[in-house]
Amino acid sequence: MCGIIGYAGEKQATPIIIDGLSRLEYRGYDSAGVAIETGQGLEITKRQGRLSKLQEALRGQHSPGTCGMGHTRWATHGKPSDVNSHPHTDCTGRFAVIHNGIIDNYLGLKQQLIAEGHRFLSETDTEVVAHLLEKLYAGSLLDTAKQIGAMLKGSYVLLFMAQDEPGTIVAIRKDNPLIIGLGEGENFLASDIPAILPHTRKMQVVEDGEVVRLRGDEVLVVDATGQIVEREPLVIQWDLEAAAKGGYEHFMLKEIHEQPKALRDTVAPRIDLSTGKVDLSELGMPSEVVQQLQRVYIVACGTSAYAGQIGKFLIERTASIPVEVEVASEFRYRSPLLVENSLVIVLSQSGETLDTMAALREAKRLGAKVLGITNVVGSSIARESDYVLYTWAGPEIAVASTKAFVTQLAALTLFGLFCAQERRVMAQEAVAEIVTALTQVPALVEQIIQDQRISLLAKDYASYEHAFFIGRGIDAVVALEGSHKLKEIAYVFAEAYPGGELKHGALALVTEKTPVVAVAIQPEVYDKTIGSIKEAKARDARVLAVVEEGDTLMQQIVDDVLVIPHTHPLLAGITAIVPLQILAYYIAVNRGCDIDMPRNLAKSVTVE
Ligand code: M6R
Question: Helix 106-115 vs helix 127-136: angle between axes, to the nearest 10 degrees?
Fold first, then answer.
């Protein structure tokens, strides 16, 4: 994680860097820092805590200079503190470095450098790079950066500045994102597009192994073999308004409200309502690949992995292809035995999650074809997958994923139906029925978002420190995702179980102090969920159930009911999660939590 930005041009660098960091804070907010080249040397200011602490430190007296770089940190090596904040310098202060990623072999390098007389100040892995610069620099920052890149193991984007090369930033990248912004008389480097979008729409993605030398009037990119890289810039069509709060108190609330539009944008261009068919010709997936599919593996992390678990139901029940789901950090290390004609689907909102990227590469190494489902155009996962299906949710800024999740479910539904059509395993009327239902889902989500009762109930539930979530089938996965939301933004110790599992252990913890949230939508397991609810009620738990309209039974059994409109059971993951997102949001508001930036987390997890 961590966000980085670099600027070289004619304007004052600090305000541009601080502004960019404010849009990168979602990547980490343990500390922030800047290095500015002032003409007299490199001046560094860094502070533990949110960017506002750094802004306070710089207020009215930022170092003058037209070249500089900034960093916002998510701590990995060394706790959040001023000294562990980036930029890091060498013993002489002539070099500065910022870093996103992890240097796996830093301990060996550090020992060697200490033995050679270098003095380390921080506990970070990054500081070794500053001392390596000091040791190896022989007049060319570009050459030294290449040399250092060859010595490092791990994942990194590193930006380097040297007092002896004013107006210049050099960058190297491996397995972490880096974008170049091309301006008029000024150029930029950043972890992502929004950080520099106010200044230019012309962007270039840096690939692994490439080295960049950035100056105000020149950008040089060379690949690992030393060849100059000429690449057509991307012209970004969207603007920052899409990523601004737009009057909402938090990005999370805004993004919850954006779900109907995100769903429409993801679904509408891919269906033909007159025929009831799904058109995924954009994938370029040959028909024989779909015909021959023996197994689908879905690999992802966090909320995306929960979307994958629902994807298993969606694909198995539509396309009749067996699906296995696994979290990416396990898949990559367990030497998976992929059957012949496998498709690995990697799901990632950001398209940059390191574990998911590594799983993608492992899948390709094992000979499988990879379909990337991601929300970020041009992201690493989009670039490295064989086939790409974009979710059109627009920028998701809040750490807690909401609109990305529901659009992932929509994309997985479309993919399941597409395979069902190609393989002719489902009657066209049945496909059309789900397609029609899918087009109606955005309006249902709109209706749920208007339900004032959810925020009122949240007040009642905000004082509990523990909670259980239960459900069966797709409902069990909705329960998992609902508990995930409550944990990450409201800091409530929330555990989710398939209802039938409760009695095998967790029931021992159910008391009047542990409310149970039950998702009871799926018709085929509804009665079974009632059974689990009764077990919880018999232990004095307060039960809140999410049910569909027309359910008159549940009101008589539980303490509180949230009623959502009816949809096709396969699509109920999309509707049923919405009240749980809103519940978690308002519980977090009532508990005074920092909703968009929950403690210890970051939006895009680009470290292992
Ligand atoms: O960008 P990705 O979808 O790959 O991110 C995966 C997880 O880090 C992410 O879903 C995380 O669990 C969110 N904080 C969930 O709200």
Answer: 50
* Count of other CB atoms within 10 angstroms of residue 344: 27
Q: In 3D, which of 581, 433, 465 has the Cα closest to residue 519?
A: 581
Query: Burial level of 230, CB count in 10 A (0-12/13-18/19+)?
Result: exposed
The predicted-structure confidence for 489-520, as pLDDT tens digits, reads as follows: 999 999 999 999 998 999 999 999 999 999 99
Of ligand 1's listed atoms, the one at least distance from the Cα of 400 is 16
- The finding on whether 348 has its CB within 6 A of some atom of ligand 1 is yes
Distance 540 CA to ligand 1 centre (A): 34
If you measure from the C-alpha of residue 313 to the centroid of ligand 1, how many angstroms do you get, rounded to a whole number? 21
Query: Does position 535 have pLDDT exceeding 80, yes or no?
Result: yes
In 3D, which of 65, 233, 71, 37 has the Cα closest to residue 141?
Answer: 37
Mean of pLDDT values over 156-182: 95
| Cα 288 to ligand 1 centroid, rounded to whole Å | 33
What does the pLDDT average to over 352-378? 94
Decide whether any atom of ligand 1 lies within 6 Å of the 401 Cβ.
yes
Per the rule left: phi > 0, alpha: psi between -120 and 50, beta: everything else, 185 is: left
Query: Mean of the pLDDT values across residues 399-418?
Result: 98
602 pLDDT exceeds 80? no
Inform me whether the pLDDT recorded for 242 exceeds 70: no
Contact 467, 483 (CB under 8 A): yes
